[in-house]
What we know:
Layout: H1 16-19, H2 22-38, H3 42-59, H4 63-68, H5 74-87, E1 92-96, E2 99-102, H6 103-128, H7 132-142, H8 153-183, H9 193-199, H10 201-224, H11 243-266
Helix pairs in contact: 2-6, 2-7, 2-11, 3-6, 3-11, 5-6, 7-8, 8-10
Amino acid sequence: MIRDITIGQYYPTDSVIHRLDPRTKLVWTLVYIFSLFLFRSFASYVVATVLLVTVIKISKVPFKFMVKGMKAVVILLLITVVFNLFLIPGTTLVQIWKLRITYEGLNTAVFMALRLTYLIIGSSVMTLTTTPNQLTDGMEKGLAPLNKIHVPVHDVAMMMSIALRFIPILLEETDKIMKAQMARGADFESGNLITKAKNMIPLLVPLFISAFRRANDLAMAMEARGYYGGEGRTKMRPLVYQKNDRIAYAILPVYLITMFAARKIVGI
C-alpha cells in the first residue's frame, strides 16, 4: 500500500506536457478541478474523461502508474460512496432492512466517486510531469502579485515544494521501518481497530524521529549555504512562456465552453 502512493513523485520522460511551463500546468489543474465541481452532468464528465485520457496519453506516463496512486484512497472513496448512497433521502430504488438506496443518493454517489477519482488522477498528472523545483518556481511566479500586500510568497512556495519532495522520502522510510518491525515480530494486520492502532506505535515513533532528523539536517544545510529567503534572489532558469504554453491557454476556454455546451445540449 505504501509503495502505491504516487503523490509527490516525478516520472522523468520527454513529452509535451513535461515541457510546459509549470504555471500553465498549475492553471490547467485548478481549472480542471473547478470544472469537475461546477458541471454536474453525464455529458460534461464525458468531456472531462476525454481530456484526462488525452493528457495522460500525451504525457507518456504509463496509465498503470496513474491508477496505482488510487489504491491508497480506495477506502476513503468507498466510505464516501456508501455515505452518499444510503444517507441521502429521495425516491427509493432498493430497500435493505432499514437501509434505503435512493435515486438521488445513487446519482450523488456516482458523481462524487468520479470527482474524487478525476481529482486525484488530474493532480497526479501535474506532480508526475513537474519537478518540485519547477512547482516552486511556478507557484512563486504565479503568486508574485501577493508580495505587494506582504504575503511571503517565496516562503510558502518553498514549504510546499519541500513537503512534496519529502512525501516519497517518508513513504520509503515508512516501508523500510515497517519491514524491519515485521521482521522483529510486529503484526500490523490482525486484531481489532484499537489493537491495530497500538501496533502502529512501533512504526510511528521511529518515523517521527526520522522526519524531525531530516528536517533538522535540511535546515542546517540551508543555513550553511547562506539561504535567506526570496528577496533579491535570482533564478538559474527563469520561467518564460513558449509556443506550447500559449496553445494550452488557448485550449482552456475551448474546454470550458465544450463542458458548458455538453451540459446544455445533451441535458444529462
